[in-house]
Each structure stands twice: as structure tokens, then as C-alpha cells.
Design goal:
alpha/beta, 8-stranded parallel β-sheet, 8 strands, 39% helix, globular, binds pyridoxal-5'-phosphate
């Protein structure tokens, strides 16, 4: 078994049944993705639009392969991404949500998305604040969307080895999902909680994550200097 296959098997053995493992392949070459695919991995996460499109193209012969966009999405890249990503996990503003809706309608497709919540201590992280999200669902702003399906929430914990803080962040995102479902009980298919990365996915799972995004623990360190 290759190193990648072994690491995927090890991670899978710790995940509850039904948890989706997204292999975050950003900055790793198509050959590594192919290796993961051959080990049975089907869902891959990319954080740059051009990189996702290029890899999707390069690996298009592989049945059932799916691509999640997980990076900060600029409005001017939305048109290129729509129709290419099976799930856009990182919708971080209403403006971006509306842009994805507009472009999806134009392209005649339905985009599946997650709303990114900002719960971490770092100011640099993107996302809706918990209050913005609650306001959005209380006002039922989602009803104006014509070509977007909101499938749930994505969250990142504070970048710290204070694991109590990390667990608190994850529990906050899970609690938000529950509150949203009481505010709008008629929401359909709002069930995905994408939380947890290489260093913290066990804590995310304990808090109720249904989707983990794991890069380094599968593919090794990223080399940001390579194209
Ligand atoms: C890069 C990235 C990951 C993967 O991080 P690792 O620490 O390599 O597992 C997960 N989620 C998002 C949003 C990322 O940008």
C-alpha cells in the first residue's frame, strides 16, 4: 500500500460511518490525487479556482471523482467556478452567495454550497458571524435564492493548541446549525457540518461534524513555492 493509501485507511478507520472525508489536495500534484483515488478516495478539496479546474480536467476520466471548493472565493472568479465544483464550502458573505446564485442561474445549474461561519479568534478568517447567520435565516433571506442549495455550515476552529478552545469553537458551529433548524424548520437538506482538519478532526467529530477536510495528514506538507 502506498503512503497516501495507508494514511487514508488510517483516518477512515477513526471516522464514524457516514462521515465524509474530503482529501484536501491543494498544492499537491495530480499524481498524488490519482494515488488517493486508486485507494478509494473520491472527494477532493481545492482552495484556488484555477487549480481546481485544472486538476478536475486532468483527472476527468475517473468515475465518481468530486471536487469541493474550500478557499476564499472572489466575486470575479464565481463565473469560472460555477459548474465545476460539486460543493462550494466557503460562502463567506451574502454578496458572494448572491453572486453564486446569479451565475448558477445564468449557467442553468444548481450550486450546492455551505455557509462559512467565523467562530475562530483570528480576525483574518473569513465567514459569517453567528449573529449574521441567525439574522439571515430569521429574515428567511434564503428564500430569494433561485439556483443555490444551502446544504449546511462550514467552520474552522481557532488556530491554537488550546484544545478546549478548539472544541468550544466546533460546538458553537454545531449549536448554530441546531438553532438555524429551529428558526427555519422547513429548511430541506440543511444537514452538513464541515468541521475538522488534520490537527483537530477528532475534536470536530466529537462535536458532531459530518464532513472533515484533511490535507497534510494524507498528502504530507504542502510546498507553497511550487506552481
Ligand atoms: C488547507 C485547508 C484544509 C486542510 O488543512 P490541513 O491542516 O492540511 O489538513 C482544510 N480546510 C480548509 C478550509 C483549508 O484551507
Amino acid at each position: 500500500m502506498s503512503g497516501i493509501a495507508q494514511r487514508i485507511a488510517d483516518i477512515r478507520s477513526t471516522l464514524p460511518a457516514g462521515t465524509e472525508l474530503v482529501a484536501v489536495s491543494k498544492f499537491h500534484p495530480a499524481e498524488s490525487i490519482a494515488e488517493a483515488y486508486d485507494a478509494g478516495q473520491r472527494v477532493f478539496g481545492e482552495s484556488r479556482v484555477q487549480e481546481l479546474i485544472a486538476k478536475r480536467q486532468a483527472l476527468s476520466g475517473r468515475d465518481g471523482i468530486r471536487w469541493h471548493f474550500i478557499g476564499h472565493l472572489q466575486t470575479n472568479k464565481v463565473r469560472a467556478l460555477v459548474g465545476q465544483a460539486d460543493l462550494i464550502e466557503s460562502i463567506d458573505s451574502e454578496r458572494l452567495l448572491d453572486a453564486v446564485d446569479r451565475e448558477s442561474l445564468r449557467a442553468g445549474t444548481i450550486s450546492r454550497v455551505l455557509l462559512q461561519v467565523h467562530v475562530a479568534a483570528e480576525e483574518t478568517k473569513f465567514g459569517f458571524s453567528p449573529d449574521e447567520l441567525l439574522g439571515f435565516f430569521t429574515r428567511r433571506d434564503f428564500e430569494r435564492l433561485k439556483a443555490v442549495h444551502i446544504c449546511g455550515l462550514m467552520g474552522m476552529a481557532t488556530n491554537t493548541d488550546d484544545w478546549t478552545r478548539v472544541a468550544d469553537d466546533f460546538r458553537l458551529v454545531a449549536a448554530l446549525r441546531d438553532r438555524i433548524l429551529t428558526i427555519a424548520p422547513d429548511l430541506r437538506g440543511f444537514d452538513t457540518l464541515s468541521m475538522g482538519m488534520s490537527d483537530d478532526y477528532p475534536l470536530a467529530i466529537a462535536a458532531g461534524s459530518t464532513m472533515v477536510r484533511v490535507g497534510t495528514a494524507i498528502f504530507g506538507q504542502r510546498d507553497y513555492h511550487k506552481p
